[in-house]
Structures are given as C-alpha cells and as structure tokens.
Amino acid sequence: MDKKYLTLIITAALAAVSATAGASGYRFGSQSVSSQGTAEANGAEAADASTIFANPAGLSRLEGRQIMGGVTGLVPHSTYADSGSTRFTGTSTGGQKLQDEYAPKAVAAPSLYYSHKINDQLTAGFGMFVPYGANLSYDWDWAGRYALTDMKLTAISLNPSVAWKINERHSIGFGLTAEFMKATLGQMVDVPGSVAAARGNPATAAQLLGAIVAAGGNPAALAAIRDARAEVEGKDWGYGFNVGYLYQPAPGTRFGIAYRSHIDHKLGGGADWDFSSVTTDRVINAIIENRSHHEDSAARVKLRTPETVSVNGYHEFDARLAGMFDVTWTRNSRMQNINIEFLGTDNGDLVIRQQWKNTVRVALGANYKLNDKVMLRAGIAHDEAPVRSDALRHAALPDSDRNQLSFGFNWKLTPKSSLDVAYSYLDFKKANGAYKNDCRPGVLECTGNGETTRGTWQTHMNLLGVAYNYQF
Length: 472
Fold this sequence. Notes:
The protein has 472 residues and is mainly beta. The protein contains six helices and 21 strands. The chain has helices spanning 3-18, 33-36, 51-54, 191-199, 202-214, 282-292, and strands spanning 65-82, 98-100, 107-117, 122-129, 133-137, 150-165, 170-189, 228-250, 253-260, 264-274, 297-304, 308-316, 321-330, 337-343, 350-353, 359-369, 374-383, 402-414, 417-428, 431-436, 452-471.
C-alpha cells in the first residue's frame, strides 16, 4: 500500500496549486508581510520590493535600491474526529478516533526581496520566498493511518524580475521562477486486513500456513499481527515565469493584472517498506513482505502546477485613506488524477483521485496613514478550496473554504528604513471526508490499501509577520 507516495504527490500537487498569490491548498499568504496586512489585497499598491511576488510591474514605482527581509510565523490549530473509517474488507480500522494538534505548534516562513532602479525606465529585482508548505503528523495508530501518518512539504522559490516603465501610466514586468520542492511522508500498511482476508479463504489460508511451517516459522505469532510501514522522500526543481501589467489612469489610482505560469515537476525519490515489526517472528515477517509484492524502489510522479491570473486595484481617497482589492483565479482543474510510478517493479501505479475545481479568491483591504511615521493596514478575504467533494478530500489536504481577517502597520524608523508587522486569522469551514482508495492489497495492477477514511477536520490558523525594509 504505497499511499505514502501518494501523499507525496498530493502534497506536491497541492503545493503546486497554492504557489500562486492567494490560492487555497498549502499556501497561506506568507510571501509578504506588507501584503499580509491587507489580506493580500494590495497587488496594485506596489509599496515595496515584495511586489515581485504579486505583480513585477510594480517594481517600476520603486526608487533607488531597496531590500526587504521578513518572516511569518504560522500557528495552526487542527482537530480530527473519526466517523467510521474502514479497511478494504469493510471492517473498522480501529485506532484512535480523535486527533488533536496533528499540525505543528508553529512554523516560520522567511522571505527576502531586493530591487534596484537602473534608470528612469528600467528596474530589476530578486525575490526569494516560501510559496507553500505543509507539516502534518498524525499518530501512527490513528483511524486513518492507512491513508497517512505524517507528511512534510517544503518549497522555496527564486524569482529574478525586471520591470519597464513605458510612461507615467503604463508599466510591464517579467520574472523567471526556479522552484525547489521536497516532500517526505509515511503511512501504515494494512497487513492485519490482508492476513484476515487470506484466512477467510480456506485455500489461501492453507497456503500461507504451509509456507510459514515450511520455513520454520511459528504460525501462533499471527495472533498479534501488526501494521507494516511505508515511507518515501522525493524532490525536484521546476521552472516557470510570471508577468504583470500596471496602469495608472491618475495619480493615486492604479490597476494591475498579473499571471503566474504553471510549473512542470518530475518528483523523484525512493519508496521504502518496513515489515520488520509485523510480528515477533522474523520468518513470518519475511514471508508476508514477499507476498505483499512491495519492494524498495525508485518512485516518480509527473505533475503540472496550475497557473493563476490576478486582477487588482488601488485608489487613494485622500491623503490618509486608500482602498484596494484583489481577485485571483486559479486553474486547479489541471489536477485530475495523480499517477505514482514505482520504477523497476511489477507494481501498478498508485492513482490518487483529485478532480480539482478552479477556484477564486477575493480580497478587500485598506491603508490609513495615522501620521508621518505610522500607516495602519487591514483586510478581509474569502478563499475557495479546490476540493470538489467529501469523497475527494484526503487526509494530506483536509482543505476547505476559508475566511481571512488581517491587520497590520508600517512604522518608519528613519527616513530610509521601516518595519512592517501583520497579524491574520484564518478560519476554515468544517471539512468532512470520506475518501476511498480504489485499489486494495494483493492486486498487482495497482497499488493501494483500499481503505476509506471517514471523519471531520476543523482548523483555524494565526499568522504573525514581521519585516524590515531599507532603502539605499
């Protein structure tokens, strides 16, 4: 049951969809602290070098050389309540029904941006940020362990960019993206279910017992049969681009449109299987491992991340107050089924049904200049999840529609330096799941545990970001 690698893929895939400005999935708006303060509504504001992420055309508005370094801390709170997860045999998986804090207590996502105005028309820049990420750790004996026990996804994007100011009204920008992705995950293998199914067939049961006795094993050890474990790791570099356009019809009013391309990944790594603790009898463990047809091997999956289009606007109502909006569309429908290949083996692919839908994120924000040193920010947003239904919600991404409320401020420390601080609260809609793996143990044409994971996830998240800006 190599659903482990399945999670690697689902992880990568989700990450892919979330690699855009505002997409749901594994992206939580940690790319820019100043943007976070407005719930990512400020794509057309172009206030600092982090505009590289939202709209590279905004670089044309920046003076001199600017650097921005920040970090966003994410503090999630997640719970899971099982409502009847079953093995491929239809019997209960057993295990813990409740999971509390399967997400980490806190994680940090850094970002770094630099811009350099070359002349009156040309500005170059460089961005380094975390486009997405995930870190889930369920108990090894939880009810959904045959789908997933633990998973960690880390990614980093390098985004050199350039902007050309055509005139006072029009600017365009272009950037290249090099994206590194690494994922590790693990899950349990349903050996107890497989042995129970074998015992239910007289011919198969006799064959198994005969093999154990012939090899010198003790059949009594089968009375305390336990799960095996599978683990996988994979990594890859992928490449894409982003473009942006900024239009200023009048001073203090701007409209922008930005596009981020898809990125092709060939996630490669290895699949490792551990049957050493299935029973206390090494002979039985070896026989069961051999009959499972699972062997350590290289693994590969090809995926294409979805592209995004963002439309945004910014308007200064007076010298103190400015309003802004952002609407981002993500082409998640590229993600249908994910096929994980096990290279050099006779095992069929692990197929993960996703069938994602396209999503839209809408954000509204405002800036208020309190005085010459302090500017306050606020924003709200609604973000759709790409998951179509409960039957397609997997434990690796128990995602759901979310609402975001953000506050922040910029404090000028000196004429050339400032500090950005932002806080966001994300509330996720209750997420019910009933994902069934269509494969089952013992079938060579495909790989899977055949389990059905039924339960409800509830999540909310706090984000706190701090960034330092300096102009040379």
